[in-house]
What does this fold into?
Amino acid sequence: MNTETLKFGAVNVGDQLPELPVDINVSFVVAGAIASRDFTPVHHNKGAANASGLGNVFPNILTDNGLVGRFITDWAGPESTLKRVNIKLGAPVQPGEVLKITGEVVAKEDATGIVDIKVVGKGAWGMHLDGIARVQLPNQGE
It folds into this structure.
């Protein structure tokens, strides 16, 4: 985690963010579902997940959005402002896997101090999440 906030001028298109590995386990999946008040059985009941064709429970999209938010703000620092997370889901990740989240700066808006980051999360079955996160960074003098 970055304890000092990145400044807008110090970030360049093409910069790679450090990978965030997330160990997926049953407690993590269930806690994410409960915290986001998503009581859909496939997120806490292995039998329901099996009936849907999966081997185990899997995280919901709200948990994934939270992970992307953490990924961005861990990199950007405490004075950054997460503006938007826009991801789509692919293959599920399940207990026993490691979700590896990576990112690359793909755009900067000088007038607003906003940085767009292409975010990808991959698990054992391939792409789990993919999208763009927007974060606002302070300028050098702020």
Q: What stands out?
A: The domain at 8-136 is CATH 3.10.129.10 (Thiol Ester Dehydrase; Chain A).
